# Entry
Amino acid sequence: MVKVYFIQVFFEIGSYVLQEAQESCDRDETSGLSVLNRGAPCPEICEWSPWIDVSRPLYGPDSGDYETYDNIRAHGIEVCTNPLNISCRAVKYPPSKTPCPEICEWSPWIDVSRPLYGPDSGDYETYDNIRAHGIEVCTNPLNISCRAVKYPALSFQELGQKVKCDVSIGLVCENRDQVPGPVMPDSVCLNYEVTILEEYSDPFVLKSVFEHLGKGPALAVAVAAVAAEAGIRPEARPR
# Structure
């Protein structure tokens, strides 16, 4: 038996929605919407695409199923340049549930570590260190952004520092890796901070965002249905 697979690409919803979200942030930073953080980038609304199936395997060692982005685009289906995630399943044997839409939100800027002088010190804005300071970080962050606290507009190259900013672990800067540069005259790391892109699927947060963006009642009703299926009542939510 040949199994045919198709995929679901996780991409950001249309630019018109993101534009409205950005305008909302610019107009009213104190709107009270829980996903809008002052001083941090505006939230991104993320959505799973419909299931896509453009390739069918044939018998023989030279065939297969090729649901690649290039192949999908060649069939006239738009796929964004940098999808955030992907899910794959067999057409005839799908899992029982489809992921709900999610809200992707940048955290406030986080700075829990300060470098000291000496080769054994540095700046360690790692997820483990951040959690050790009582700040929650999700298990699988979607993205990370890092910057020097005193020089937020300068890149690592412009700072003349060797820094690891990795979505899998966080930020690591080792004094032993540094040389005197244009900003720091000593072999010492600057103080850095990070912001982390995380995803949320809280149906009540989703409902608030959809209503706030003025997308009409259809999406809000759909999200409320998800909440009802989960057995969560609006009045049970803390205010």
User: Anything to note?
Assistant: Helices lie at 15-27, 69-74, 127-132, 156-159, 203-212, 217-229. Strands lie at 5-12, 44-48, 85-90, 102-106, 122-126, 143-148, 164-166, 170-174, 192-200.
